[in-house]
Every structure is written in C-alpha cells, then in structure tokens.
UniProtKB/TrEMBL annotation:
Family under the similarity heading: Belongs to the drug/metabolite transporter (DMT) superfamily. Small multidrug resistance (SMR) (TC 2.A.7.1) family. Gdx/SugE subfamily.
Gene designation per UniProt: sugE
Keywords, comma-separated and alphabetical: Cell membrane, Membrane, Transmembrane, Transmembrane helix, Transport
Gene Ontology molecular function: any one: transmembrane transporter activity
Chief localisation class: membrane
Protein name, as recorded: Guanidinium exporter
Classification via Pfam families: Multi_Drug_Res
Region forming the signal peptide: none
Organism: Ancylomarina salipaludis
Subcellular location: Cell membrane
Transmembrane spans: 29-49, 61-80, 86-106
Amino acid sequence: MNLAWVYLLIAGFFEAAWAIGLKYTQGFTRLWPSVFTVIAMGISLYFLGMALKNLPVGTAYAVWTGIGAFATAILGIILFGESVHFARIFFLFLLLVAIIGLKFTAK
C-alpha cells in the first residue's frame, strides 16, 4: 500500500477522534477533552497534508471526510447509544463502499 494512503487512513481516524472529542469538550469548557480535541485536529490535518503530496486533492479530501464520518457514526453508536436501524447501517455500508471505490480509482 502506498504510504500516502496510510497517511490518509491515519488522518481519517484522527478526524473521527476530534469529532468525538468535541462531544466531550462541552463547548470547549472542559480543559483536557479540549486539549485532546485540538491535538487530534492538528494530527489529522498534518497527515492529510502529507497524503496530499501524492494523492489528488478531491479524492484525498473525500476519503478523509468519509473515513471520519464513518468512524464517527460507528463510535456514536458505541459510545453514546445513538440509534441503530437498518437504513443507517445500510448507508454507512454504502459510505464504506464509496471510500474503498475512491481508493481503487485514484490515479
């Protein structure tokens, strides 16, 4: 696997980390969750930038947000008891298929 895709995967996971972290900051009123969130944002953007050295921006951005959205939705279900129903799982599956499809069609 190309190192740029590894960077993009890391960036996507840290995007989910900061999105979940935002929930714990309670509007940036809690210090340590806020610190974690800001650090995760920085790490996510750093690795996105590294991936963009070798990947098309449109593909990389779509995959980055897709990984973040998918992981955040799954973590929301696990951590916060968000709803789980067929339609939601089906569309999360479609999102995952789109992410994989973009990876294999990128030039």
